[in-house]
Specification:
The complex is a heterodimer. Chain A is mainly β. Chain A has helices at 2-19, 237-241, 382-387, and strands spanning 55-57, 61-64, 69-72, 82-83, 89-90, 94-101, 107-114, 121-125, 130-132, 134-135, 146-147, 149-152, 155-162, 170-177, 183-190, 193-199, 202-207, 215-219, 224-229, 245-248, 251-256, 267-272, 278-283, 290-297, 300-307, 310-317, 338-342, 345-350, 355-361, 367-373, 376-381, 392-394, 396-397. Among the domains of chain A are: 232-325, no CATH class; 327-403, no CATH class. Helices cover 7% and strands 44% of the residues of chain A. In chain A, a hairpin with a 7-residue loop joins strand 13 (155-162) and strand 14. The longest helix of chain A is centred in the first third of the chain and has 18 residues, at 2-19. The two termini of chain A are 49 Å apart. Chain B is of the alpha+beta class. Chain B has two domains: 2-40; 52-252, no CATH class. Chain B has helices at 2-23, 26-45, 52-55, 58-70, 91-100, 107-119, 172-186, 243-248; strands spanning 81-83, 122-127, 133-140, 146-153, 159-165, 195-196, 198-199, 211-218, 223-230, 233-240, 251-252. In chain B, the strands form two sheets. A nine-stranded antiparallel beta sheet of chain B has the order 1-2-3-4-5-10-9-8-6. A two-stranded antiparallel sheet of chain B has the order 7-11. Chain B is globular, with a radius of gyration of 25 Å. Classes of the chains: A mainly beta, B alpha+beta. Chain A binds chain B through residues 1-2, 5-6, 8-9, 12-13, 16-17, 357, 359-370, and chain B through 3, 6-7, 9-11, 13-14, 17-18, 21, 71-74, 76-77, 161, 163, 199, 201, 203-204, 211, 213, 224, 226, 228, 230-231, 233, 235, 237, 239, 241, 245, 248-250.
Chain lengths: 403, 256
């Protein structure tokens, strides 16, 4: 019996030590869904985006989907040129971006650099009264506009807006041929043609000087413009003539501004191009005077309601008109911001632990150092996002320790 | 009874053993911390430090070291902790002592400063391990306009920066005079490489107000000296800045 007590004296500390650090499994806690291996196949659209099958690009950062790392992306620009605030687009082989040459008559240019790096090639240099066409090619939720680049076999097409005192305003389709290295005008598309989105992989355009002519789909291969929606149809004319349009997937959304409506309310309507159904998706009756369309992700429209200092974001299902519930949201209930999509994944903004110091001069002319939180970017499977499962992978900065 | 005693002894032995095991590495860890702290100074300061002349001036060295070790240039714009009136202690007296040494600070300015401190209704402060402390007092002026009085001092009583509203209008010449006096009192006038900077910043100025901005830079000490009068606020002080950091701001060194 005595020996048993000594055994107890030795065994107990060992058991206690063994217990330190070991965590009892919680039978109630659900194991997080493991993120599947990232295999992305990007459907071919004529419109180039911020992503290719491997990376997502902002003006100065490349987010690598294979390694889940972020790193600075700063090509050496030709002498005298600067990068503009717009982001690049990728065709999987090279990046295309807008440059500017500051000076008395600052001019824009379209640049190209291979993904593996190398010399920046100027594809087109704007004249005095010319601009490269830019738009929110990835969705209005993106922070950067990007050049409108269209894939056409080995050619890359883009829009050039031209204006002047002697010449009538015009928008031209240009094509750069990678085989011959030449860049030539293909055709005049209209007076002032603007990109509003894409449908079935083709850019949807409207001439701001002639909106009643309709919404057009541009085939970059042939340069042909075909009518997608005509203003002659009374039921759908608002989707052609609306002040601001959002065209993504099968849907065209349009918002009416309160000043245009006799009852002083705003409304958001959606046309399903597949079925022809028209639905009201949001209005001032949802609790906010102003209701604005923001983005469409997989058939769900993000709406922003605001009044005074109050505002709210929510999603509405374009097919049912019902508010979407249960998606991934932050602590205040605001849906996590989707920046872009790639295959079955979304790129979302998340809080980051990365702080950078910023030196600036304050209102009194003093140098001040502030710490600024750099928001992080994460990849999440679409189904996890809509199910509200925070099973996302954050991009780590190259060289940063992975915990 | 004997069995219970054995059980109790077993438990006691278990806890004693556990305490010994857990506490054993503490002295080693402490010694390791000491070694690490001792390495911080030479490791961070030898690579790209100040000139020998600047290192010989305590105030210049402390400003630079604080930036290198703690990443603090100044407390301008920083969120300070709310504090009570008791905690103010001798901070105003230390400020008065510094300002009285400057052949610039008039009796009117001193009276206005004392009035603002006496009438302050909110107090905030911050201090760091290098011994610098900052104060931010919200004070209500005669014309019921709320404004802030801020100052920051080193452990040795040198003024790092000050921001104050008063009724006097300062010209560019006044600000140059202020900087000369400031350098003399802090001992930074020993540095022989002060260069006058072209300040290109154009702060927003409300109607009826003006802005005068003056600055100098010492490449050896890596210090930026400034005296500004913007929208009725006098603000002056010194801030550690690397030359690359200076290049990021809207100021330029004179061409060689």
């Amino acid at each position: 019996m005595k020996r048993n007590h000594w055994l107890l004296a030795v065994a107990l500390p060992l058991l206690l030590l063994a217990g330190c650090g070991a965590k009892e499994p919680d039978p109630g806690a659900e194991a997080p869904t493991p993120t599947p291996a990232i295999q992305i196949e990007k459907p071919q659209s004529q419109v180039l985006h911020s992503t290719d099958s491997r990376s997502y690009y902002t003006q100065n950062t490349r987010y690598d989907l294979e390694t889940m790392t972020a790193r600075d992306w700063r090509p050496e620009l030709p002498r005298g040129y600067q990068m503009t605030a717009e982001g690049p687009v990728s065709d999987g082989q090279a990046l295309y971006f807008v440059l500017t040459r500051p000076g008395e008559s600052s001019s824009k240019a379209l640049g190209r650099v291979p993904l593996e790096g190398g010399e920046v090639q100027i594809l087109y240099e704007c004249g005095e009264h010319e601009q490269i066409g830019i738009a929110y090619t990835d969705g209005a939720g993106e922070y950067y506009k990007r050049p409108i680049l269209l894939r056409s076999g080995e050619r890359r097409c883009f829009l050039v807006n031209r204006w002047g005192e002697e010449e009538e305003d015009s928008t031209w389709l240009y094509a750069w041929d990678s085989a011959s290295g030449t860049c030539e005008p293909v055709k005049r598309l209209g007076g002032h043609v603007r990109f509003w989105g894409e449908y079935q992989g083709r850019a949807v355009l409207r001439d701001s000087w002639e909106p009643e002519a309709g919404l057009f789909q541009l085939d970059a291969e042939t340069g042909e413009m075909t009518v997608l929606l005509s203003s002659e149809n009374a039921e759908t004319s608002q989707f052609v003539l609306g002040p601001a349009l959002l065209i993504r997937e099968n849907f065209i959304c349009v918002g009416s501004i309160f000043a245009q409506n006799p009852d002083g309310k705003e409304r958001v309507y959606c046309l399903d191009l597949e079925t022809g159904a028209v639905r009201q998706l949001a209005s001032s009756d949802d609790g906010y005077l102003l209701v604005r369309v923001q983005d469409i992700w997989d058939g769900k429209l993000r709406v922003r309601g605001s009044e005074g200092y109050e505002s709210e974001l929510w999603y509405v299902d374009c097919s049912t008109g019902q508010k979407v519930k249960g998606m991934l949201a932050d602590e205040s209930g605001t849906p996590m911001h989707i920046r872009a999509q790639i295959g079955e994944y979304y790129l979302i903004d998340v809080e980051s632990e990365r702080w950078t110091k910023q030196l600036w001069i304050n209102d009194q002319g003093e140098p001040v150092n502030s710490w600024v939180n750099q928001r992080g970017l994460a990849l999440i499977a679409k189904e996890d996002y809509w199910a509200g499962r925070p099973d996302y992978q954050i991009f780590k900065w190259e060289g940063e320790q992975v915990p | 009874m004997k069995q219970r005693l054995f059980t109790a002894a077993a438990f006691l032995a278990a806890f004693a053993f556990l305490a010994l095991v857990l506490a054993a590495p503490l002295p080693l860890m402490e010694r390791s911390d000491e070694a690490l702290y001792a390495q911080v100074m030479p490791r961070q300061l030898t690579a790209d430090g100040q000139s020998t002349q600047a290192r010989s001036i305590d105030f210049a060295r402390q400003l630079y070291d604080r930036d290198q070790l703690l990443g603090i240039k100044n407390y301008a714009g920083a969120l300070l902790q709310m504090t009570d009136q008791e905690a103010l202690g001798d901070a105003p007296d230390r400020l008065y002592d510094f300002l009285r040494q400057m052949d610039f600070w008039s009796e009117e300015e001193q009276a206005e400063l004392e009035r603002q401190i006496a009438n302050a209704d909110h107090w905030r402060s911050a201090s760091d391990s290098v011994g610098f402390s900052a104060w931010n007092l919200n004070t209500t002026q005669d014309w019921e306009q709320c404004s802030s009085l801020q100052w920051e001092m080193s452990a040795e009583g040198q003024l790092v920066r000050m921001l104050m509203r008063n009724s006097r209008e300062y010209t560019g010449q006044d600000l140059e005079h202020l900087m000369d006096e400031y350098l003399a009192v802090t001992g930074l006038d020993v540095l022989d490489d002060w260069q006058v900077l072209d300040v290109l910043i154009q702060p927003y100025v409300t109607e009826g107000n003006t802005s005068e901005l003056r600055a100098r830079y010492s490449p050896g000490a890596k210090l930026y000296l400034y005296a500004n009068y913007v929208n009725g606020m006098l603000v002056f002080g010194v801030c550690p800045l690397e030359q690359e950091e200076l290049a990021q701001l809207d100021v330029s060194l004179p061409e060689q």
